[in-house]
């Protein structure tokens, strides 16, 4: 490699970022008033948090617009749309129109709907003849438990596999890599069928249907579904962990730590793992979203009474009010999780909220 | 769900090799599957919808190479015809999202002013909608079938391609060779479309290959729960659903073959995607 | 006689390939400073790392590398740990890469002390603070709680040195510790290293590619080339009287300030200068409302046929100036006149840009990024001919071939992609691309700074040749005063965005008026045997 030169990146449009020029002066000089800098740092962090929250609200707002007005993409009378598959008697139509306020202008409908949502009134389910919020809340625990259990599997197995693969070059690495490639290619529903075939039908170790009662029974019932749900993501997390750790292992600060006499395990924990967390955390946001949505498939397959199954059912039974509400819930959860991940990032990598987002 | 955030940029790695053996195998496997599916009408031994109740759940034999399903339909033929539906969707989605994503990402990455900021916000908002969820919403609105989900998924995948492209364009722009083009007086559209874009295509291609696998799995899942392809059309996901009864009765083949093909295609496509992204590093060091 | 560090016939390499190190032998005794000099690929880093037992994976080795009698090639893990903790320490080249960015500076310093010296965190921090003050960092108590990205490069390197000294090593290994720093910062670090080495009686092995630096610090030197020791001896002998061809070549290629060889300015004429700049400023607004003034009120004139060196350290604004001249940036204030045409105060339109391309071109610093990786070099040059001289494909190819030969790229490389060429070759191609547009003014933005010393000398020679043959006017941006003294008849010295001094090179270098210029000249490494004090 040719000699690296003095200059900071020659293609940056201005002087280097928060690091300061490579002389003895620059913003890093400790002679500058320590307190002023602390205040500046704190206000920067605050504005960082506020910007993220603002972004969150904006996204949710636009998402709610999209979800609400999607109904208007379908040609025809909105009232008929809500009543598809049910008897379109004129009195029923009139009743629905009045009840849902369908004769009002769309913007007013939206505002009413949004207001209702924020107050906990999410409309009524045509199938269940109950408040949507009630129906949802009944089924929420099962989904949350399923996703939580899957998340546990993913974190434990995924992280572990990734760490082992990156630290054991050669046979261990290759073997794990091949397993991960294969496992990652198995879609949740295929995994579900496979697991049921082997562990339920053949071996009879786990049930293939229902969610069970009581803590341990529930866990027993949810094991196969959680595994099926998690298989692809375990592979995904393992790969990201492995590549993130591999990237860190060749970084110079790891060599420096070794040269100072730290034991291998110290080096790995303090300098490799710690630094590798960043990218892993970033993808975990996308992960959770995938879990929430794929859980629909799994719930349907295993007959679990969760939100996902409710979604599929409602689509089947043309109960759009419920569909709308569930989509809104999932999108909100997704955006919130991603924002939380963004907010946690600076704790892991202090360079981020300082404004210089180079890695 | 996508690996867009972990794919390497058009960056540097000390890794250069010819196409590896695994990659060749993957390419051949994919080509074979595609070819067989496209030529299914000529190649399939039976009509995939032909019901033969005397021959239900038969094992592999000379007449039925892969056996038959619960309605006596030939599994091999259903698999072949199933490929046409199962592969068409992902192809359309990946092509559509790649083209749109590239164009939008180019515009966003190259602009210094309001266009880039607005597009960035648009991507942020699109990101809030996971692909599978959007396709379910589309089914809820427009009814069952594949058309609505395909369009919905295309839109849902655009931000991943666009965000990747935007980042790549922004960093390429800052590179001296691009600045040299400007100082030499080459016109911006030529530089962007003729010189920068081709340098991005491998990375976007790698991501698209990976996305293909995800879309394939998602659309198959949609058919699996009955919201996508409707019977009697054969589709790998639907085939797996149909054979659940047989599975519980101990007959695994009707479910096994389509599951195997799905896994094989997804693995092959992933391997190709990784190979492309590995070679990107090699090209530029 | 037992040496502190002894390397005997050390050979290292991958199986089946040419060895990376071939029978390298050297030694360092207590209290002496030894330099290991070589260009890239010489193996100097590997040798140093071997002294700590840090060998690359899957390599084979033979020979002996021992520190105080312990053979690092065969030592046990425990013995290596002890070696690294107590006997020997290493200072790495890039402190930003070498210090974990997500942990505090204090954590970096104390982790060894806490871990195996059994000190409590408070005690360890106290020792760290003392050591930091000893290496010249003020307000060390605040520093230990900061993160690396909050410190400048110079400060970080002092932290790295403090960390190395904390364990009171007997042997200090330095791997190009100042290469990533400005020359004024470098001077301070070098002084610090010399002081500490003398005070503690440590043996020091100092790696560098810069012969001047080696001469300013070390009594003995080993010259390494492609893994072999080519020459060694007392620094003064090797420097003044090199025995081997390669050493001679290296010494000859090392730029020095030789006031007798400064090119003369062009004869004064009635003509207007080619480039005229007055009141030129450039400000950037950062995300948080901060405004950075990269260039402040620059004014100078460059006559036709002249060559102007723009000298400064990082943050001086010299690159900004270069970019303004070629219109990659738009000035915030001021006037810029090139060949009589005034630069508009807004980004250029496409047609204006095309016209400007005939007036001025630029060659960038980084040979790896300045060529399109996808396009064969011959085609890249031909494209410029087609654009500017409207030549047909065939004619353009011929012109490109001719021009490339002129810059030293033979026809067999015409269809090669950049990755098949070396750094020096890529810069030649970049030159060809720029010259294909037949500019009157050629801007070189640190165009040779990223090249090895001998390659740099060749490229500079080429630039001189082309300048004379084509009657080019040159604007050479660099941090290296010696390069300026060789190529440029006039010089501008920049510091923190302002021009602090300008004039004919010979005058400015002989009798600098500004304090910063004096500092810059005085910071250049001076050989140990050169007892004359630096110019005021």
Key terms for this structure?
heterotrimer; A: 359 residues; mainly alpha; disordered N terminus; C: 536 residues; alpha/beta; six-stranded mixed β-sheet; 23% strand; globular
Describe this entry's structure for a reader:
The complex is a heterotrimer of chains A (359), B (285) and C (536). Chain A is mainly α and 359 residues long. In chain A, 70% of the residues lie in helices and 0% in strands. In chain A, helix 8 crosses helix 10. The longest helix of chain A is centred in the last third of the chain and has 39 residues, at 264-302. Chain B is mainly α. Chain B has a single domain, classed as MetI-like (MetI-like fold), CATH 1.10.3720. In chain B, helix 1 crosses helix 11, helix 3 packs antiparallel against helix 4 and helix 6 (147-173) runs antiparallel to helix 8 (188-224). Chain B starts with 20 loop residues before the first helix and ends with a helix. With 536 residues, chain C is an alpha/beta fold. Chain C has 20 helices and 20 strands. In chain C, a hairpin with a 2-residue loop joins strand 19 and strand 20 (498-504). Chain C is globular and about 70 Å long. Chain B binds chain C through residues 12, 175-177, 179-188, 195, 198-199, 283-285, and chain C through 326-328, 350, 353-357, 360-362, 364-366, 368-375, 383-384, 387-388, 419, 430, 433-434, 437.
Quick description:
By secondary structure, chain A is mainly alpha-helical. In chain A, 70% of the residues lie in helices and 0% in strands.
Strand-pairing-aware structural class of chain C: alpha/beta
CATH class category label of chain B: Mainly Alpha
| Beta content of chain B | under 5%
Runs of chain B in which pLDDT lies below 50 for 5 or more consecutive residues are 1-17
Q: Largest inter-chain interface?
A: A-C, 56 and 83 residues
What's the β-strand tally of chain C? Answer: 20
Give the topology string of chain B: H per helix, E per strand.
Answer: HHHHHHHHHHH
List the helices and strands and how they pair.
The complex is a heterotrimer of chains A (359), B (285) and C (536).
Chain A lengths: L33 H36 L8 H5 L7 H10 L6 H14 L12 H36 L3 H14 L3 H15 L12 H35 L2 H8 L4 H39 L4 H10 L3 H29 L11
Chain B lengths: L20 H18 L1 H4 L31 H36 L3 H14 L3 H12 L4 H27 L2 H9 L3 H37 L11 H7 L1 H5 L4 H32 L1
Helix pairs in contact in B: 1-3, 1-11, 3-4, 3-6, 3-8, 4-6, 5-6, 5-8, 6-8, 8-9, 8-11, 9-11
Chain C lengths: L4 E9 L7 E8 L4 E5 L6 H7 L9 E8 L2 E2 L5 H11 E4 L3 H4 L6 H12 L4 H14 L5 H4 L9 H14 L4 E5 L7 H18 L2 E6 L2 H7 L2 E6 L2 E7 H6 L4 H9 L21 E11 L5 E12 L4 E5 L6 H8 L7 E6 L2 E2 L7 H8 L2 E4 L13 H12 L4 H14 L16 H14 L4 E5 L7 H18 L2 E6 L2 H7 L2 E6 L2 E7 H6 L4 H8 L14
Parallel strand pairs in C: 3-8, 3-9, 6-7, 7-8, 13-18, 13-19, 16-17, 17-18
Antiparallel strand pairs in C: 1-2, 1-4, 4-5, 9-10, 11-12, 11-14, 14-15, 19-20
Helix pairs in contact in C: 4-5, 4-7, 5-7, 7-8, 11-17, 14-15, 14-16, 16-17
């Amino acid at each position: 490699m040719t000699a690296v030169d003095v200059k900071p990146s020659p293609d940056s449009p201005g002087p280097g970022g928060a690091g300061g020029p490579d002389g003895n002066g620059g913003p890093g000089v400790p002679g500058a008033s320590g307190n002023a800098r602390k205040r500046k740092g704190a206000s920067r962090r605050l504005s960082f948090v506020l910007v993220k929250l603002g972004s969150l609200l904006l996204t949710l707002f636009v998402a709610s617009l999209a979800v609400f007005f999607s109904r208007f993409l379908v040609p025809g009378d909105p009232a008929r749309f809500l009543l598809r598959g049910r008897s379109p008697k004129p009195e029923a139509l009139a009743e629905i129109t009045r009840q849902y306020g369908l004769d009002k202008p769309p913007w007013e409908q939206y505002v009413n709907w949004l207001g209702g949502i924020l107050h906990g009134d999410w409309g009524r389910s045509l199938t269940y003849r109950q408040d949507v919020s009630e129906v949802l809340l009944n089924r929420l625990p099962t989904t949350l438990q399923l996703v939580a259990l899957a998340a546990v599997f993913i974190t434990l197995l995924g992280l572990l596999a990734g760490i082992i693969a990156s630290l054991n070059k050669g046979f261990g690495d290759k073997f794990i890599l091949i397993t991960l490639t294969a496992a990652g290619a198995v879609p949740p529903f295929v995994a579900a069928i496979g697991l049921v075939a082997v562990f339920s039908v053949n071996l009879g170790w786990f049930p293939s249907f229902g969610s069970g009662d009581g803590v341990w029974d529930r866990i027993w019932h949810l094991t196969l579904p959680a595994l099926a749900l998690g298989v692809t993501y375990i592979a995904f997390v393992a790969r990201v962990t492995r590549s993130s750790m591999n990237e860190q292992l060749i970084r110079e600060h790891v060599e420096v730590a070794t040269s100072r006499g730290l034991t291998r395990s110290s080096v790995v924990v303090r300098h490799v793992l710690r630094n590798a967390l960043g990218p892993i955390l970033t993808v975990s946001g996308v992960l959770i979203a995938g879990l929430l949505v794929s859980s629909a498939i799994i719930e349907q397959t295993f007959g679990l009474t969760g939100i996902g199954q409710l979604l599929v059912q409602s689509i089947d039974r043309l109960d759009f009010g419920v569909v709308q509400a569930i989509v809104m819930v999932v999108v909100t959860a997704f955006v919130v999780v991603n924002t939380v991940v963004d907010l946690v990032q600076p704790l892991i990598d202090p360079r981020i909220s300082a404004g210089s987002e180079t890695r | 769900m996508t690996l867009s955030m972990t794919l390497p940029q058009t960056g540097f790695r000390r890794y250069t090799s010819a196409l590896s053996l695994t990659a060749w195998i993957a390419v051949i496997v994919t080509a074979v599957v595609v070819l067989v599916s496209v030529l299914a009408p000529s190649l399939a031994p039976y009509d995939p919808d032909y019901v033969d109740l005397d021959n239900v759940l038969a094992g592999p034999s000379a007449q039925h190479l892969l056996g038959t399903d619960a309605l006596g339909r030939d599994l091999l033929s259903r698999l072949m015809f199933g490929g046409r539906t199962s592969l068409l969707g992902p192809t359309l989605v990946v092509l559509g999202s790649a083209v749109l994503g590239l164009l939008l990402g180019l515009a966003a990455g190259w602009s210094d002013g309001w266009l880039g900021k607005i597009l960035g916000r648009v991507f942020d908002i699109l990101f809030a909608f996971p692909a599978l969820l959007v396709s379910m919403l589309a089914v809820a609105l427009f009814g069952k079938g594949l058309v609505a989900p395909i369009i919905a998924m295309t839109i849902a995948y655009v931000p991943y391609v666009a965000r990747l492209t935007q980042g790549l364009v922004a960093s390429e722009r800052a590179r001296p060779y691009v600045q040299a083009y400007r100082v030499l007086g080459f016109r911006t559209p030529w530089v962007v479309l003729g010189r920068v874009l081709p340098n991005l295509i491998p990375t976007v291609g790698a991501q698209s290959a990976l996305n293909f696998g995800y879309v394939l799995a998602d659309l198959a899942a949609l058919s699996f729960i009955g919201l996508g392809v409707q019977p009697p059309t054969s589709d790998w996901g639907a085939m797996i659903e149909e054979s659940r009864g047989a599975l519980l009765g101990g007959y695994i083949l009707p479910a096994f073959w389509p599951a195997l093909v799905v896994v094989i295609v997804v693995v092959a496509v992933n391997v190709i995607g990784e190979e492309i992204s590995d070679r990107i590093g090699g090209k530029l060091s | 006689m037992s040496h502190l560090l002894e390397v005997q016939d050390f050979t290292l390499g991958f199986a089946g390939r040419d060895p990376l190190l071939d029978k390298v032998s050297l030694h360092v005794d207590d209290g002496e400073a030894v330099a290991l000099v070589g260009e890239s690929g010489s193996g100097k880093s590997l040798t140093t790392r071997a002294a700590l037992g840090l060998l690359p994976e899957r390599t084979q080795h033979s020979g002996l590398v021992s520190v105080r009698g312990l053979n690092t090639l065969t030592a046990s893990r425990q013995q290596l740990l002890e070696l690294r903790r107590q006997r020997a320490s290493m200072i790495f080249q890039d402190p930003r890469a070498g210090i974990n960015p997500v942990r505090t500076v204090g954590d970096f310093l104390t982790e060894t002390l806490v871990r195996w010296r059994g000190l409590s965190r408070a005690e360890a921090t106290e020792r760290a603070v003392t050591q930091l003050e000893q290496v010249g960092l003020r307000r060390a108590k605040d520093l230990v709680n900061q993160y690396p990205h909050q410190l400048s490069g110079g400060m970080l390197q002092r932290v790295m040195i403090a960390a190395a000294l904390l364990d009171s090593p007997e042997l200090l290994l330095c791997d190009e510790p100042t290469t990533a720093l400005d020359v004024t910062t470098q001077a301070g670090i070098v002084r610090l290293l010399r002081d500490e080495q003398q005070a503690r009686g440590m043996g020091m092995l100092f790696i560098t590619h810069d012969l001047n630096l080696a001469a300013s610090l070390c009594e003995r030197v080993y010259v390494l080339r492609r893994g072999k020791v080519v020459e060694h001896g007392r620094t003064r002998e090797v420097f003044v009287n090199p025995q081997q061809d390669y050493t001679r070549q290296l010494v000859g290629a090392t730029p020095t300030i030789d006031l007798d060889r400064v090119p003369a300015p062009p004869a004064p004429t009635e003509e207007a200068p080619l480039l005229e700049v007055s009141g030129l400023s450039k400000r950037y607004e950062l995300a948080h409302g901060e405004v950075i003034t990269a260039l402040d009120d620059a004014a100078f004139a460059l006559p036709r046929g002249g060559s102007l060196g723009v000298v400064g350290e990082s943050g001086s604004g010299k690159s900004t100036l270069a970019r303004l001249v070629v219109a990659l940036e738009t000035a915030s204030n001021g006037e810029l006149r090139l060949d009589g045409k005034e630069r508009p105060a807004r980004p250029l339109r496409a047609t204006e840009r095309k016209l400007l391309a005939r007036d001025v071109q630029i060659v960038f610093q980084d040979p790896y990024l300045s060529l399109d990786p996808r396009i064969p070099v011959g085609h890249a040059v031909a494209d410029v001919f087609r654009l500017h001289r409207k030549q047909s494909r065939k004619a353009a190819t011929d012109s490109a071939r001719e021009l490339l030969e002129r810059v030293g790229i033979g026809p067999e490389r015409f269809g090669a992609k950049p990755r098949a060429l070396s750094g020096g070759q890529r810069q030649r191609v970049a030159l060809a691309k720029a010259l294909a547009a037949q500019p009157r003014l050629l801007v070189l933005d640190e165009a040779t700074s990223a090249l090895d010393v001998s390659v740099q000398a060749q490229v500079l020679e080429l630039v001189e040749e082309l300048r004379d043959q084509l009657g080019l006017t040159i604007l050479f941006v660099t941090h290296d005063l010696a390069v300026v003294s060789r190529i440029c008849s006039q010089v501008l010295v920049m510091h923190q965005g302002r021009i602090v001094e300008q004039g004919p090179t010979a005058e400015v270098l002989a009798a600098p008026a500004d304090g910063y210029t004096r500092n810059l000249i005085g910071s250049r490494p001076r050989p140990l045997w050169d007892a004359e004090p630096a110019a005021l």
